[in-house]
Amino acid sequence: MPDVAVVGFAQTPCVRRTTGTTNGVEMLVPIFHEVLTGLGLTKGDIGFWCSGSSDYLAGRAFSFVSAVDAIGAFPPITESHVEMDAAWALYEAWVKILTGEVDTALVYGFGKSSAGQLRRVMALQLDPYLVAPLWPDSIGLAGIQARLGLESGQWSERDMAEVAARSRADAMSNPHAQFAGEVDVEELLARPYLADPLRSHDCAPITDGAAVVVLAADDRARELCDRPAWITGIEHRVDSPNLGGRDLTTSPSTVAAGKAAGADGVQVAELHAPFTHQEILLRQALGLGDEVRVNPSGGVLCGNPMFAAGLGRIGEAAKRVLTGEADRVLGHATSGPLLQQNLVCVMEGRD
Amino acid sequence: MTTPLSAQLEVGFDYTRSLGPTLGRFMTGLRQRRVTGVRGSDGRVHVPPAEYDPVTAQPLTDVVEVASAGVVRSWSWAAEPLAGQPLDHPFAWALVQLDGADTSILHAVDAGTPDRMRTGMRVRARWARERVGRIQDIACFEPSDGPAAEPLDDELDPVTMVTTPVVLRYEHTASLVESKFLLGLTEGRLLGQRCPACGKVYIPPRPACPTDGVPTEGEVELPDRGTVTTFCIVNVPFLGQRITPPYVAAYVLLDGADIAFQHLVLGCAADQVRMGMRVEAVWKPREQWGPTLENIDHFRPADEPDAPFDSYSQHL
Predict the structure, then answer these.
(1) Contact A234, A349 (CB under 8 A)
(2) CA A309, CA A335: separation in Å to the nearest integer?
(3) Which chain A residues are within 8 Å of B173, Cβ to Cβ?
(4) Reported pTM
(5) CB contact B118 to A (< 8 Å)
(6) Residues of chain B with pLDDT > 70: what percent?
(7) Which residue out of B11, B103, B106, B181 would a mutagenesis test of the A interface target, given it has the greatest number of A Cβ atoms within 10 Å?
(8) Can you tell me whether residue B221 is helix, strand or coil?
(9) Closest Cα to residue A153, out of A258, A285, A286, A277?
């Protein structure tokens, strides 16, 4: 089977509100252009297109079909879509390349969260019989998970604030970040609760944005870039949807995906942690020690475009290999409530 | 123009779901102020009941009745409740482990203020006065060391279905080129956009040419007459229909456009409409115009010979 690598990555700025449509075309056209021209490719060179987005976020049916306008799908293209974060679209594209049918794939995700009320939209991913009818919002649920860890001593409010402060400081070098800057932990801890025990800095912002990753196989990858980020392991696992029936202070699916993908020995990890405590939880689940640089981009706490942010983590991690800054990296994506489903993608450079 | 048109959009649907034996029994119980769980392969009692064992995936059938009072295992404070949530004043979301259960149920606790909440506190169900067999039959939980309400023994038909209304609100935004098109209509003008790569003219315009994937940027004003490329005769009545069948829904290709749009063709018998027929717009009275293609009430036959097939064969 072929070796598959990330060879290109582009993303829009993370912003609170765009004026574009919910089908993402306005966000996608420029980043398709950026990533394809950067690689010297045209749309006809792409063997497979795969996207991740959600009609619930868009408030309209088949928004992903309208998004195909951004590609210019003539002559007809081979295309697919997942109603999930586009990291799972990347998984599908990876499988497609492994079949040998194609040697290039372009994966994209987009979301205009500002169009609706994100906290309510996210309630609709919950059990539709027993949980969603109560409209539990994403922040309320995350608060329950955070408190379990706080009261069991797994993390403290200070640990959480430190994650926020480090993320915002790191984001100062990320021109796409929505939030960046030096913030003082004491000052963060003095702020009021948003949803006790969570403060605003513990929660990822509401973001409009999109991201795109190009994959290529073997020699095609070597032609397209000097230092492809070869995927050495990509795995995803899922936990029970029953929030009261699983231990929320760990993530068995992340542990399993990390083991299967071979998370050991990575130098950089981009973790999809929309809440500060979840970064701590994920570090533990993946066994990442202090020597691992976590979320040098600032992570999703500094910009969280729904359905693109997980793909963006893989892109950000891959970028460290493409630029030669790191040799072995990890991108993580999550989907579902409270880290229910997790994907781990380990990549390395080969000199 | 830099700000596109936008409007509030409400999307709603009443989801109706069949419950199956496990959840049906649970919902039937709620109507009687009774909470039932199910015993898993490891002996744990799952409340709410799991249909399949989370470890072995085997169907679970060992039903266990538990109390409607229990202990808070974790919580967060909802200072500003959102639409549809169990209470409209501040409350706590909590995982509540009912007495006799080994898992927790997610629900609201009506504690008033966050300082009355703590992990480990006892709560009991506050039952809705009207119970129909849905999770909201438990209105919420309330702090209490007292006993749970006694179940009722009234015999009612088993609950087999649950209806969940879902309503979401969005700000729906048109693209910039669609906005120009819609604003043009308020002046009785038909504004399309030309693709800079292939030269095709789209009306209604699209943010990107679907053939080339580049933004359409050249504005083109089109006349209000064109050609019927294809059509159908509507004979079927449906909800919200404005015209009595039979009538004709047709694709009209405006002169100078490269894509047809759907509209009504009236003003002749339905069986007189044909491919290639030339038609012209019949506008509503000007005072009724808004940013909508409905400003054109319908198209009617124009007094012209039919267009040759070759003139529209690439636009079908």
Answers:
(1) no
(2) 10
(3) 19-22, 115
(4) 0.95
(5) no
(6) 100
(7) B106
(8) strand
(9) A277
Query: How would you classify residue B188: left for phi > 0, otherwise alpha for psi between -120 and 50, otherwise beta?
Result: left
Tokens of A250: 């760990």
Rounded mean pLDDT of chain A?
A: 97
Q: Where are the domains of chain B?
A: 16-167, 174-222, 225-316
Contacts of A59 in chain B (CB under 8 A): 9, 11, 168, 170, 172
* pLDDT value at residue A317: 98
Which is it for the CA torsion B181, B184, B186, B190, positive or negative? negative
pLDDT band at residue B265 using 50, 70 and 90 as cut-offs:
very high
What is the residue-averaged pLDDT of chain B? 95
Q: Are B92 and B117 in contact (CB under 8 A)?
A: yes
Give pLDDT tens digits for A133-190: 999 999 999 999 999 999 999 999 999 999 999 999 999 999 999 999 999 999 999 9
pLDDT at B195 over 90: yes
Q: Does A148 touch chain B (CB under 8 A)?
A: yes
List pLDDT tens digits, range B151-160: 998 778 999 9
Element containing residue A89 per DSSP (H, E):
helix A86-98
pLDDT at B55: 85
Asked whether the predicted pLDDT for residue B1 surpasses 80, the reply is: no
Question: SS3 of A162, please?
Answer: helix
CA B113 to CA B296: how far, in whole Å?
Answer: 58
Instruction: Let me know the angle formed at the C-alpha of B294 by B290 and B296, rounded to the nearest 5 degrees.
Output: 100
Contacts of A69 in chain B (CB under 8 A): 206-210, 213
Cα separation, B70 vs B104, whole angstroms: 9
Q: Can you read off the two tokens belonging to residue B261?
A: 């749009």
Strands B6-18 and B105-109: unpaired
Residues of B in contact with A248 (CB under 8 A): 74
Q: What are the structural domains, with CATH classification, of chain A?
A: 4-118+206-226 (3.40.47.10), 134-202+230-348 (3.40.47.10)
Token pair, residue B172, equals 């729906």
Output DSSP code: residue A289. -
HSE value, Cβ hemisphere, 13 Å, CA-based, for A64: 23
Beta carbons within 8 Å of A186's beta carbon, 6+ residues apart = none
Structure-token match 């403060």, residue found: A199
| Secondary structure of B58-70 as H, E, C letters | CECCCEEEECCEE
- In the chain, the amino acid numbered A320 is R
Chain position carrying tokens 């709560």:
B123
* Closest CB to B172 among A59, A70, A124: A59
| Cα–Cα distance, A49 to A234 (Å, whole number) | 19
Among residues B261, B258, B304, B248, which one has the least CA distance to residue B279?
Answer: B304
Amino acid at B22: T
- Residue B302 pLDDT > 80, yes or no? yes
State pLDDT tens for residues A241-253: 999 999 999 999 9
> Under an 8 A CB cutoff, do A69 and B208 touch?
yes
Q: Does B167 touch chain A (CB under 8 A)?
A: no
B200 close to A (CB below 8 A) = no
The answer on pLDDT for B287 being more than 90 is yes
Q: Which helix (H) or strand (E) holds A119?
A: helix A118-121
Half-sphere exposure of A221 (CA within 13 A, CB side): 26
